[in-house]
Amino acid sequence: MEKYYFRRLGVALYEGRNKDGLSYVLSPTKGVNTKFFGILVPKGGLTDVVEIGGTKIPAGTAHLLEHRLFETVGGDTLKKFSECGAFANAFTTESFTFYYFSTSQDYEKPLDILFSMFNSFYQTSEKIEHEKPIILGEMATRRDDTAYVMDRKIVESLYFSSPIKDEIIGTERSIQSIHLSAARKFFEQYYSADSLTLFASGDFDPDKVIRIVDSAKLPKFKKQPVKSVEYKEKYDKAVRSEVEDVSPDGQTYLGVGIKFPPRKELFEKFGDDMFALYEIAGSLVFSKANQAISDMRRDGLIIFGNGHNLEEAGEDTYLEAFFETNSPEKLKKAFEKHFASLVKSYKSVTSPLNSIQLSYYGDSSMLVSNSEDYTNNLVDAYMNHFAWPALVSRVLAFKKKDVVKFLEELVTFPRTYVVLSGDKTR
Amino acid sequence: MANNSSLLLRSNANYRSSALTATLVIDKDKTSYEALSALAVMLLLASKAYRDERGLVLRMMNLYSSSLSLSTKRYKDKYLFDISLSCPIDKYVGVNSLLSLEGKILKTCQKILADGFNHDEVALMLTKGKLVRDNNDATGNPMFLAYEGLKNNFFPNANFASYPNGDNSRILALTFEDLEKALEVVRSSKAYVGCVGFQRKAKSLSSIFNLAEGMPIYDYDVDQSKKCADLSMTKDVITSSYLVIGYSLSLDEGYKGDIEAMLLERLLCDDSSPLFLGLREERGLTYGVDVTFPSEHKSMIVSMVLDRQNVAPAIKATEEILKSSDDKFTQERLDQVKKTMKSGVDAIFDSPMSYSHFLKGSLMNGYPSTKDEYVASIDAITLDEIKEKVKGMRKVGSFSVDPSEA
Q1: At a CB cut-off of 8 Å and minimum separation 6, what does A123 contact?
Q2: How far is B57 from B40, CA to CA, in rounded Å?
Q3: What spatial distance separates the first Cα and last Cα of chain B, rounded to whole Å?
Q4: Cα–Cα distance between B55 and A307 in angstroms, integer?
Q5: Chain B interface, mutation test: which of A81, A359, A426, most B Cβ atoms within 10 Å?
Q6: Mean pLDDT of A373-391
Q7: Where on the phi/psi map is residue B344: left (φ > 0), alpha (ψ -120 to 50), or beta?
Q8: Percent of residues in chain A assigned helix, strand, coil, to nearest 5
Q9: Cβ within 8 Å, pair A141-B288
Q10: Which of B59, B238, B336 is the closest to A359 by Cβ?
Q11: At B96, is the secondary structure helix, strand, or coil?
Q12: Which of A3, A160, A348, A385 has the fewest CB atoms in 10 Å of its CB?
């Protein structure tokens, strides 16, 4: 076990691995009653793997398995968590799957329950089939959501062939084609003890948790040969520079998507700084600390900002933001002007970088008290082989020239604009 | 700890941030809801101290993401004007100056209320546009329309499904005079203030806020006299149906009723509940189901998103499940739900902002102000009481927003 202390945030991380290869990252935070524990499976819904051991893996397999894992040989784990006063759930991203519980009470029993979910592959064809209509129901709940529609339109407009275009949940057709054998192969490939990592934050005794982890006996499986999807993405342009569609809620929105070069290429240019730059990339471009964005708000071109998001999966990364507006064309022109002067504004004496760093520091410091958000940040950074508190220190150490170098590149990346038009008569 | 009947100060020693929630209680005849909503935006627009904005929350980037938000709400027969402040504790972000972040943010708040807003026609026009747009965001949401349909047809006096910023035509008619009047009302209204941190600022708080003596007096009831029916409307573009089913019930007054509502919410629709298991797992009618208790403990609303052809079966199944659900409530299940709820109570006290809200709520409603009191009030609810509430439920009506046939 290694212990690391991060002075800027005043937190410690305990990192280690048990004899079966199960890893752990623990960050005890005194005084935070809600303890948050989760197990990370380092594979999500990205459709980059088409076959495992000769078995086809349809889109949506990771997500379907996530649904099914709560039923074990010992019964319904959701009920068991609940009986201990713990709340449990899971989610699947493009890159990973995460099973978690939170509780302010005893965490030993819920932790045992969490481990029990990974003890064996307890599925049958009937159980897999029973889950499919539930997933189709989940799919239906998203179709009228503006943020979801905007994200889909942006990603479809940016990418030609990358698997990042595919939906994590799959399609109606791919979900129907998931068989027991695919779920089993997927489980054995990615749910082996030596692939998993336990995360925890909140007020707990790390030595006690390490003892529990050391006594956990999770199975290990032999890895099968994997056939990956072959694709050639074009990184010098977007599929379409502008798309228009109907808004599900009758309002008008403008979305902006920026397609980054392959991860390897960026890493060669920026090294580890790349991941710290990802932490603040959205703020560097879309924060009101930029005078141009502030002016868009003042002039009424932006009515509300709906946030920004940086999505990473495999070799691909894109940055997106979307805004409520009544003048999408004017707003698009204002953004193009903003991109043209972005580098200059960060070189100037009134560079917004300092404001962004101070604000990021304040947000990060306060976030440590929220065990769920803190753990999620630890997980995201871990997927890039980083301790999140180290990324925070790196962001705070950036000088103007570091950010300018990144932005000089970013303004040349392909962009797309998506207009979701509302009813003009409203 | 200080208790000045409408000011509660608690220590921030276990936290990384401080938070303050002040609620000004405003009688409806003093100003309009629309004027208060517009005032909140105009005051924030007028402030030059801020560098970023998330929705209507102003974030002071140079003050380590300290934030200030102003908002208006309807509560019983009053309007509430909420002011929330939050800042990191100095030592966690290495601040070492004479004036603490708490001091700086309080000073800013004081200045905003004292300076008021500029009589700038463009700013007023933008403000009106924002408010109308915000209202349209709500009405664009099919679930909001379903709630609105239910309210208009079955709960006409209830506060739920109200437009977030009031009536659009009244917003568009607002004048600077209306806003000045609203500002005067805000400055003179009685305040209830909950703080986690700010303990050395009690004197400043008394000068910024007009601290009240005693709780406000409410006079509010909800009329549910309409005949039961299942109603619907169609909406273009959407692909799923949005269904809400209203029930009348009679929970206890005060925080006991709040706790009964929270227990029932979990008992009826958590992962082990009759509604979740019956509608999703057994009948496959919907992906998820929610239960809410708006209208001051006089109503319960079951909501879900589902395929259009499942609407009628879901209404029928919900009625069947609820009719027999009290038989499924056991002491063991209630104890388990209480245990989960206590984790939720701990979560309130993990966040200085939610803790300050809790303190302010205790001042305005005579609710518990400590975790122990709150937990004791959860423990005091009995299985018989819960069963009695469920038995007393009566369906009032349902409303669905459906996709058009085409």
Answers
A1: A68, A180, A183, A184, A187
A2: 10
A3: 63
A4: 9
A5: A359
A6: 97
A7: alpha
A8: 45, 20, 35
A9: yes
A10: B59
A11: coil
A12: A385
Q: Taking Cα atoms as reference points, which of B90, B13, B14 lies closest to residue A30?
A: B14
Instruction: For residues A368 and A11, give the distance between their C-alpha atoms in angstroms, rounded to a whole number.
Output: 8
Please write the tens of the pLDDT for every residue from A188-223.
999 999 999 999 999 999 999 999 999 999 999 999
Amino acid sitting at position B229: A
Per-residue pLDDT tens for A296-328? 988 989 998 999 999 999 999 999 999 999 999
Look up residue B353 and give its amino acid: M
Task: Kindly give the pairing relationship between strand B190-196 and strand B210-211.
Answer: parallel
H-state helical runs in A219-352 = 263-270, 273-286, 291-298, 328-347
**DSSP assignment letter at A225:** P
> Does A397 lie at the interface with B, CB-CB under 8 angstroms?
no
Binning pLDDT at 50, 70 and 90, where does residue B56 land?
low
Q: How far is it, in rounded angstroms, from Cα B121 to Cα B296?
A: 39
Q: Which two tokens stand for residue A170?
A: 């799959």
Nearest CA-CA partner of B262 in B275, B277, B248, B252: B252
- CA of B223, closest CA in chain A: separation in Å? 31
Give me the phi and psi of B58, to 5 degrees please: -95, 130
Which residues have a Cβ under 8 Å from the Cβ of A299 and sit 6 or more positions away?
Answer: none
A407: nearest Cα among A242, A258, A237, A238: A258
Instruction: Dump pLDDT digits (tens) for B112-144.
Output: 999 999 999 999 999 999 999 999 989 889 999
Cα dihedral B185/B186/B190/B193 (nearest 10): 180
Identity of residue A338: H
Rounded to whole angstroms, how far apart are CA atoms A158 and A165? 9
The pairing of strands B230-235 and B394-403 is parallel
SS3 B402: strand
Q: Provide Rg for chain B, Cα atoms.
A: 23
Query: Encoding tokens for residue B345?
Result: 């109570």
> Do residue A251 and residue B137 have CB atoms under 8 angstroms apart?
yes
Task: Determine contact, residues A347/B328, Cβ cutoff 8 Å.
Answer: no
Q: Do A358 and B240 touch (CB under 8 A)?
A: no
State the ipTM, two decimals: 0.87
Cα–Cα dist B142/B156, whole Å: 19
Rounded to 5 degrees, φ, ψ at A342 are -60, -50
A3-17 pLDDT, tens digit per residue, is 999 999 999 999 999
Give the pairing of strands A97-103 and A87-92: antiparallel
Greater pLDDT, B50 or B377: B377
Whether the predicted model's global pTM rises above the 0.90 cut? yes
Task: Write down the pLDDT at residue B49.
Answer: 60
- Please say whether the beta carbons of A109 and A84 come within 8 A: yes
**Residues composing chain B:** 406
Q: Where are the beta strands (DSSP E) in B180-339?
A: 190-196, 210-211, 230-235, 241-248, 289-292, 299-306
Q: 3-state class of B308 per DSSP? A: helix
